[in-house]
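User: Could you check the structure of this?
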Amino acid sequence: MVVSSNPIFIEDRPGTKNEVRCGSTMNHPILIRNRSNQKTKIEIWIDATDSKSEPLLRWCNFSEQSPLTLDASEVKEVMLKFKIPASAIPDLYNYEIRVEAAAQYPGKIFRRPQQLKVSPSDQDAILGRDEPRFSVQPISISTNPLPVEAGKQVEIKVAVENRSRRVDRFYLCPELTPVFTSEWYTVKYPESDLDIPGIVKETDGLELNPGRSGEITLILHPPQYTTAGNYCPTIRLISTNKEDLVLLDIIYLHILPGEKLDVRMHPQEQKIPQQVGKFEIDLINLGNITRKLKITAKDEEEIFSYFLQPPVVEISPGKVKKVKLQAKPKKWWYRPWKGKALSIPFYIELENTDSNTSFTLLPQQLPQGNLIWQSRDWRLLWLLLLLGLLGICGIAFAIWWNFLRGKIPTPFPQVKKFEAIYKEDIEQKNQENSITLAWDISHLKQVDKVTVIQMQGNQEINRKNYLFKAKIPDELTKNCKQTQILSGTTTNENKENDRKSNLLGLTRSIDKSSTETKVLEDLSCTNIKTTAKAGNYTFKIEVFSKENPEQPSSSQITDTITIQPSTPLPLPKIDEFSSTEPAYAQKNPDLTEQNNRENDLPVSPILLNWEISHPNNVETFEIIALAPDGSIISKPKTFELNPMVNVFYHLNLKKTVNGNKKISPKKN
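Assistant: Sure, the predicted structure tokens are below.
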């Protein structure tokens, strides 16, 4: 059983006996110590560690009521009162004293293993005077356990006395505690002499004659990684003659803590930047306590940063934990430019992180690593020089762009050409004479607005504004197009701008060098319709720049243009209208066609011929049948001369001698 250092510590009062006879009572005092710096409320009880020890739960009472309150660093005595019934079976009973402080230490129970030896009553003892006796050396008690190092051995001498009248054989059975396995101990019995002189044999028990004493050697050798703490193994002496006889004793052991820790690192050296700068640290716990450690690494001048994964480890006894270490440059300017590489030794530091443990021993010597920081590539120096030169050029360009560029005037848009075109067209019907405009404007990107003014005399009669908001207005897209020219191309407009650009001592050569890659855009518009009717007109165009949208940057005025009134269209005229025959016979439906023609007159219907001059100006005409008295005898028939409408007449177009057109339809 293990008792470790805890904030709540349970201990036996020195001189306490753990033996009681059947039918009697016993008080077992214990001390509960609050090692923390806070007030603690605890629950206290006992629990059997095996099935045969469960009667102890009925036999035990506490002197203090639970829960029990302890102030910081307070020690309080609690009495365990055992009342053993006379019918109790003499034996060794195992139990634990348990304490819980749920509010301060949730989920953690503090334990103290205990044993209670129940001996036969006095009356039973009188009847058993011939029972064997044994004792254990060295003597150990709970307050003064026998110290043992894990992995080493200690000898326990068990002296046995045979008080019976018969020869008896004794042997030890130290397996009453689950932790106390065969790996922990070795039992050696004394060798016995044979009848043959000089020959002895090893026995598996201690054979004693009546009234004789002997000794059994118990060698304890706990495994190397046995957890440090207090253990209470039980030994039992078994008599061959009385196998039901229970002879028990307790050995109190304290396994000393082993703090040995081995730290290894590989590789020991890395070259940067040829290698990745990664190391692996092995932490080997060669002791018997759980270690919680924080690992750090650094060099003297902190040139590199060191990253460990994981930075905190917990290592059980006999286990190995691996930690990855990666070094990355922190002070990059320390790297040599040429020549010999820079050697940077670094070292590892360990720190205990478990505040509840008293084991603080750390290895005195820890492995050291070495980083070889190789010099820079000579080509990098040329690259840096080039970057420096580019940086200077960039700074110069930024100064020009932010401070000097605004001093050079931006070219204003100019009207390169503006003209009004008079168009006379009398071919189409109802088409009046009209004026269209055309213009060319330079530096389209600087144009904010274009205004066209129509004047009659000196009076403005119409004004039209075209707004250029990052694009050509929709009403001009059909009749306008953009033309691109290189900035190096010299125009009359650019010459004036070149003269204005010589400000602050800057020659135009600077502007040319900065604009050689530019593409200038001009606007060319044609066939822009106007609302001019008959009369005398002049037109004016004004261009406004984005820098000064209030004042026009350029303007032009056309000459006076006269629009003559349109010539009236000639009216259509019926030049000829007649029938094909002067007389017709009315058709009799009761007669045959031959009988209808016997009178030598053409049979109806009547066929008509006519000629009309200026047929282009004819929309419709009507044919009306009249009686001799002038009355209408049939419904008028209307004909449309629309080329898109199907007519039932064949139209023959003829031209008169004077050039007028005539229409001569024949009714079929």
